[in-house]
Every structure is written in structure tokens, then in C-alpha cells.
Amino acid sequence: MCGIFGYWDRRQRALDGDALRGMAKALVHRGPDDEGIQHQPARGVAIGNRRLSVIDIGHGHQPFVSDDGQIALVQNGEIFNHVELAAELRTQSVRLDTHSDTEVILRLYEREGIACLKRLNGMFAIAIHDAREDALYLARDRIGVKPLFTLDDGTRLLFGSEPKALWPALGGQRPAMDLEAIHHYLSFNYIPAPWTAYEGVRHVMPGTWQKFSRGQHVRTERWWSLASQHEQDHTFERWSEEFTALLDDATRIRLRADVPFGAFLSGGVDSSTIVGLMARHVKEPVKTFCIGFADPRYDESAFARAAANRFGCQHTSEVAELNMLSRWPQVLHQLDQPHGDASFLPTLRVSELAAKQVKVVLTGDGGDELFAGYDKYAQFFARTDAAALPQANFERDYFDSISLFSPKAKAVLYRPEVRARLSGIDSFTTAAQPWFAEAQHFDRVNQALYLDMQLLLSGNNLVKPDRMGMAVSIEARTPFLDWRMMEFAFRSRGITKLSAQGDKKHWFKRAAAPLIGEDLAHRKKQMFTVPVGDWFKGELHGWLRETLAGSEVMAQLFEPAGIQKMLDAHRDGQHNFTRELRALAAVALWHQDAFG
Predict the structure, then answer these.
(1) How much is the average pLDDT of 404-433?
(2) 583 and 344 in contact (C-beta within 8 Å)?
(3) Interior CA angle at 580 toward 579 and 581, to 5°?
(4) How confident is the model at residue 322 (pLDDT cuts 50, 70, 90)?
(5) Which of 199, 224, 249 is the C-terminal boundary of a domain?
(6) What pLDDT is recorded for position 325?
(7) Whose CA is closest to 457, among 34, 145, 43?
(8) Could you tell me if 318 and 192 lie in one domain?
(9) Catalytic, out of 2, 116, 290, 313
């Protein structure tokens, strides 16, 4: 795990060395162990890396450079099948000087070019300077486990693992707030890729690579698409066998590390299954980490303890302070943009707990999106007309069911001049409908899951373990998001995931029960969160009112009377506006951190 950064100037203008060092410094938390920069001022290009040493600790310094000096490469992430790829390369008389997965990428790229990405099983963001082509490549893993951002003004491209890495190259200034991105944020509770909160700063999209050359044109190719799968019929026995074998191997190869590793364990079906599979492949007890709360409504620690005991884990659990909102500004600083998800706070807390003992953790992220684990799926498909709706109506109705603010609610809240600027920009049409268009050959349940795979994961749910883990310099690995498991999941019909009776993760739980036990497999899902809504009614109501009333961006965007009405209705119990108020507060706190 690392942070990468750099620039590419089409006019071959050199970026100041202090700016490059500033870019590296901004990512020290992602890579506290080492730093490497290859800067070619005469060419107007640099690629750099801050390294968290996990594989081949002594010999994995980046950038890796070809023998002739023509190709230089950095990556953020891990290639979990690097062992098999290295063995194959050696049989072909390719010299490998290290056991680093990054060197494997370099040697594959030398032989196969950018097409080598399809051979990688991992989580990665890669930058390659190829002087032979006088070009820079940026590439991102299949589903966006690892982040990569760009800012391209048509002359100079800047890139980095986090937006904050770009600011030193801009003299410490940040681009203006992207109003359209905030508009989409109010629909999704996160900013969907490719947008970010800053004008011109964009994601390299998951499963794509981009090639930058001296002309204005940027070539973008999508090298992997989950939509290439087609649903098949399975018996449960056959499905269970393939599911277990794939997840077991995905877990096994994610245990490759030269540093201590462990797992986040909530006691839910996802994390319990991963820990159970880990225990099959290690000699020492798996180190597991959990935080609990004194309030039983939010405390899962007893379930985590039960799972840890079942698998003989070395379990570490702490009762955390329930009110973590004092750390919200810190979280948003790490995120570089607003997120309305309160579970970032406890994720930071459990990351801090784990970082005292390990550098790598395995997590259960992705299981809910692949196998229909959220209540929202059961609630929507409980509608009697869900299957019979015309396609266009289904898409719009499902989007409306998961939206935070409806288009009407946003329009009412906006100041007139903001409403006028955003008129005609529909978050459904712009951000969601293109993904639905790709997924129409799937059944309705899988179409809903596909939307979350493309938007929710890279926009929010994978941001959480990445940024909160990297904030304390630990790496999070996600076996459920092995490409083989993702493709298998979308060859599985929706009825295997969400039963006709609304049973979520239907076959998954049945398949996991022999490993984790019936109680853990079928326990009621509990969200990893804190009671923000209660605090907004009581002890923190005054703080929230002050935060929103005193915010420059709130005054710039929204009608004060509309916010006041929401605050009063929530406090008086007339309506639960927890998620809406939390989202607005996140914008106010982020803007204060970003722009002062």
C-alpha cells in the first residue's frame, strides 16, 4: 500500500522540485516507510511514491525502472497473484531482481504493454512513464479499491492518490467548489465518481486506463467491465461449492505479506466468513479487531467475540466512546470532500486499534453489494409492482428510493440563483442512468446491485477502509472484491441473493453456515454506526444549529428558512431528518477545512 503522485506537462515545462516534495509530504500517512521520485525536468514529467512496506520490505523501493531507463512505474496497492506471475516470467527467462509485486508489473508491461492489466489480480492504482512512446499511463483496478485522482488543465496533468496531493503543485491553492458535484452529493450522500468536490479534479474511473501524450487528446480505455457477465442457473449445491472455493482462494492469496496482518471482525456474516477462511490458512491465531459501545443498540462486540472464539482468534476489543463527533473534522480532512456516512468515525477508531499490532487487515467489504445485504433491497423489492414496472419506471423508482434529497427537496432548499444554475442537471439522468443502461440484461435485483457496485463502492464504501486505514498507515484488503468473486456474483441470479420472502444474502448465508455456525450466519444485520440522530435532537442540537448557521457554504447555497425548518422538525420529533442534517453538516465542516 502506498500513495502515488506526479505530473505530465505537454509543453515539457518542469514542475518545481519543492512542489513535488510537497506532493510527497501530503501522502506520508499512506506511505511512512519510504519515498521515491523520478523527475525528468527536461521532459516535464515526474512519478513518485510514498511507500508502506508490506511485500519485500527491503527491496520494494519505487519507482521501478526498466534496464534501459525508458520505463518507470509506481503503484499504490497490491498484486495478490504476483507469486504466480513471477514464476511464469522466470520460466520465460525474465530476470526479476526482487520479490516485489511492483517489479512484476514492470516486467509484464515490458512484454505485453498496458494489456498486462488483465493479468493482475489485485487492488491498484498505477502510473507508468513510457519514454519510448513519450506518454504517461494511469490505470486503476477493476472496481476502484484503490483511489486515483487527476487535475488536467489541458497543458499540465497532475495526479495523486488523494486530492490533497495535488495542492502543493497549485501553490497550496485549491480549485473552487464544484457545484454540480455537491448537487449529486445531496442525492447520493456521497459524491459519485467521476466528480469530486473540486472543479476539474476527477477520478480515474475503476477498470479504466488513461494515456496522456503531448497533444490535447487523452485516450481512455475501459479494460474491464462487470457488465460482461450473464446470469446462469445454478443448483444451490453447485453454487455453494463454487462460492466457497472462490472466496477461500481470494482470502488465501490476500494473506501474502511480510508484515503482521489481521482482520476487522464485527461478528456479521461477511467478516465472520473471512476470518473463518483465514483461520484455515495460517498457523498462528488470526488477530482480530473490534470496537464495542456501551449502548447495546450499537454494540456488536458480543457477536465478534463469539466468532473469534469459534476460530481461536487472538481477539482485541475495546469499548469506544460513543460520541465521536469531535473527530468529524479530522475524518473529513482525510476524505478531502464531504461524506454523510457516520460509520467513517468508528472505522477510524477500529483502524487505530488494529494499527497498534498489524500493518494489514482483511475486511468483509463488498459482500453487501454483491449479495444484497442491505435492507434497502428488501424494502424496494417487497413492492408488489417491482418486477412488473416498465424498465424506465423501475430505474427511476429505485433511484428515488435510495436518494437522500429528492429533486424537489433540493430545489426547495437551494437559493434562487443556485437553483437556476443547476436547473436541468438531474442526478438520475447524469450519474445513475448510464450504469442502468449497461445492466439491463441482468434481472432487477442484479440491476440494483450493479448500480451500487459502480457508484456506492468507489464513491463511499471503499473510501472508508482506504482513507481511514491509510490515516493510520494500515492496508485494508477485500477478498469479496476479487475479480473472480465479482464475476461469479453477477453470473448468479438475483433470487439467489434476495429471496421471494425478502431474505437478504439468501444462498450466501446458507453456504457460510457450516463454517461460521447458524447463529452468526442468520443473525439480524446491525449497521456499524453511531446514534447521530439522537444527538441532533438533544445534546448536539445547539452545536448543529450553530455549525449550519455559521457556515459560509450553507449561506451561499441554501435558504436559511429551509434548514431551520428541518432542524426544528427533527428536534421536535415531527420528522427524522438525521441523514439530511448529517449530510449538510458534513458539507459545512468540509468547506471550513478546505477553504477556511
Answers:
(1) 97
(2) no
(3) 95
(4) low
(5) 224
(6) 85
(7) 145
(8) no
(9) 2
